[in-house]
Write a structure and sequence with these properties.
Blueprint (H helix, E strand, L loop, with lengths): L1 E4 L15 H10 L3 H12 E4 L2 E4 L3 E4 L2 E5 L2 H14 L5 E3 L4 E2 H4 L12 H18 L4 H9 L4 H15 L30
Antiparallel strand pairs: 1-5, 2-3, 4-5, 4-6, 6-7
Length: 195
């Protein structure tokens, strides 16, 4: 079943969310702020689920329109169709909505782009690279992630991520950087179909 909606129309639950463990691990691995990284993922691929709004791994954005699928296979099949008909720089995939035209080379193949931790790792790498180009502010790095040229699109995106960030509990107690498991050791369980 295909669910279509605008990224910006997804509402954030009134209750505060904590950063899921997997996001924290990937964020620490790439030295990006976990709360900001999770807020960015919420902005990129939110889906309303019974337990609240969460990033959705089988999301695609094509020319500004979001598509969300119930399984990795459905998302991958849709991506194959889009890749034949749409300029690749107009396609974003997965939890981090990684742009296929600019960053598809970071994945071994299009199937891998929908593996949640692979997608998150690529997303975190891009965010870190943006920060290294604009080291004065993580928020500017988020703007760069969305629109490297900056300007109004980056500013709107920063504002949207800040809104999501305001709904996230801080988890910056002790950073267990040395104890973090390598991302390939993390396991993803596919959610059941939501109706």
């Amino acid at each position: 079943m295909l669910i279509i909606f605008s990224i910006f129309s997804a509402s954030v639950s009134a209750s505060r969310q904590s950063v899921p463990d997997g996001y924290q691990r990937v964020a620490y691995l790439h030295q990006v702020p976990p709360e900001l990284f999770y807020a960015q993922s919420l902005q990129e691929s939110s889906r309303k689920l019974p337990h609240g709004v969460r990033p959705w791994p089988w999301s695609i954005n094509v020319q500004g329109r979001s598509y969300q699928y119930d399984s990795r296979l459905e998302a991958w099949q849709a991506l194959q169709r889009f890749l034949k008909t749409v300029p690749h720089k107009n396609i974003d995939v997965g939890l981090g909505q990684v742009n296929w035209g600019w960053n598809g080379r970071r994945f071994a193949n299009s199937w891998e782009a929908f593996e949640p931790y692979t997608n998150l790792n690529v997303s975190a790498q891009i965010l870190r690279e943006c920060y290294e180009r604009k080291p004065d502010s993580w928020l500017r790095a988020v703007g760069c992630y969305h629109h490297p040229a900056g300007g109004a699109p980056a500013a709107r995106y920063i504002s949207a991520v800040q809104h999501k960030l305001a709904m996230i509990e801080s988890s910056t107690a002790a950073s267990p950087l040395p104890e973090i498991a390598h991302a390939t050791q993390l396991v993803w369980i596919e959610p059941r179909s939501v109706k």
